[in-house]
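To assess whether the prediction recovers the assembly geometry, we first specified each molecular entity separately, as shown.
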Amino acid sequence: MKNKKRLLSAALVAVMLVAVVAGCGKKDSGDSSSSEGSETFKIGGIGPLTGPAAVYGIAVQNGADLAVKEINEAGGINGKQVEFKMEDDTHDAEKAVNAYNTLKDWGMQMLMGTVTSDPCIAVEAEAEADNMFLITPSGTAVDCIKGGNAFRLCFSDPTQGIKAAEYIGEHGVGKKIGVIYDSSSSYSKGIYENFAKEADNHDLEVVAAEAFTADSNKDFTVQLKKIKDAGADVVFLPIYYDETALILKQAKDMEFDTTFFGCDGLDGLLSVEGFDTSLAEGVMLLTPFAANAEDELTKKFVADFDAAYSQTPIQFAADGYDAIYAIKAAAEEGGITPDMSASDICDALVTSMTKIELKGLTGTISWADDGEPDKEPKAAIIEGGEYVMK
Amino acid sequence: MKKKIFKNNMITYALIIAFYIVMQVMITTGSISSLLQGLLVPLCMYAIAAVSLNLVVGFSGELSLGHAGFMCIGAYASAIFSRVTEDSLPDLPRFLIAILIGALVAGVFGFLIGIPVLRLRGDYLAIVTLAFGEIIKNLFNVLSLGKDNEGLHVSFNDAAVMELGEGGEKIVDGALGITGTPRDSSFTIGIILLLLTVFIVVNLVNSRTGRAITAIRDNRIAAESIGLNVTKYKLMAFTISTTLAGVAGVLYAHNLSSLTVKLFNYNTSILILVFVVLGGIGNVRGSIIAAIVLTALPELLRGMANYRMLIYALLLIVMMLFNWAPAAIHFRERIKSKFSKKQEVV
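The predicted structure of the complete assembly is given in tokenized form:
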């Protein structure tokens, strides 16, 4: 009796599974046949659209969508329209590979992603095996672009650490540096390690380096106290904005008045809910993009972005926007067409990427053979509740 | 009785093998989507983890909330081995040894944790395993390991301290984890390991030892009074369970080229517990089916964009009600009695 009960339930589940799988299979075969004769470029995107890192993924998605819309209105790439589709990876390597496979079923020819580092490393291995062109807008870990098929739009972790030390040294921001970093984050740790290495070359002294982990990121008074006692005149924060907001508040409470200097992770600080923005006055950050820059390109982008999504774009939106335009520039240089296979497109783009120079929102960028971008580092300072480019 | 158990087990094996054959046919004819093909190894991995946890939760009656921690140990131990011997061993033997190492190391840790904790009564195992999972996560988060011509270097501070010499290479890089693990996991190996896991668990449960384990679960005092060594049997079940969790970790580590500790937090431990509870506590086949359905469904529903999380949550509730609500049980019985009557007529 009990056995039969189980048999019945097993049979029911089996029927359901088969239905799901079969349904999915049919849909896919339909898609792939339609893409063969299609006349559009298919660009896929991967990033966290839900979960704790969703701010970044959604910003990249919005920026990329905007770029694709503009390109299509202006006649497309090489006269062909562009389709863009973003899949969610919840900032998880396993889910990112699933997202990649989903996009492949959809008929993706080029990949703009992934947004965050660890998923990007996993996806890059898949993309390299398939010879799929990949450009990551904001994956900063070195291994994100290990293969010959991959390019990066932002600075890598080591570069950010080095550029930060360079900037502090050259602009005389301070001499004695205190650091608070997240030892459980590869982004934060990567920047810190390279910053510490480079600091000597610029006559900077790291007087205190205090770590925290993702499980203990609420109370920073101990770290701040140690840094204060060590007599630091600059506090370097290679971390994200939500933790920075807490640090600034706690520093104010213990009357620790100093200069805070951060990297691109601090972008978004002013939009933290319930955060007193006057605390952020004088905070400096290394970021390639500020929404109130005066150049024509940025002004137009910010106005269009506001019209489309009713918000001010952050740096990640600019990264997504530039990444799409980088693909466009390389595609036009390489003269690719939508009927080419993904692998042929990749071969063509890899050669043409190193030839182009992109005048984008995040600076004038050219690429080396290893996929790393070459552009000027820019720093912004928070004044009067706004990011002001220096 | 014996015949019934035998038949029941054969159905489980047959279902797994049928699943394998269907997928293989789809792969060879090219009618499978890349998404589903990419999901096959994770499906095996989660199924193994669920079956192994069921041994503790279902048959030994203890609650373990640190299963992801043991998977993490298996994953890291095997990935380090594979990275170190990448150039010196051929693929298949290396992977087989990696599986053994992952299983062994996870098993040893399970044994060590179990010795003090399983002597206690109550929910202590749940608390200790929860803490253990977090400790393991944080330890691997700061671990750096490199190799050069002089041998292996280990550091718990940062990778720069190791000062690797000539031919130096970082294997584990703190929070970045292990990148570039050889991708040896395949669907075939996954299915073989799943069959092996089911074989071990099912045979253990139906053996003399298994009856002792379930006896202790049902009434500890009675079991003690007839002379069963409670700690020994509990420890046995727990160690075997963690060993198998280590195997699941090995599959995971060799399926992706990026391995970080992020996945192995308590959320994953609870996810696996959800597979076990919804599949039916003490029901091996149910664990496998729940693991497969609940892992595959959110991915296959990607077409529904933002609604898929909602559907997933609804599915959890529906499955829970179908399994446990009195009205649903009554309804199922009625359907089944009709079903069996019909069979009798035939």
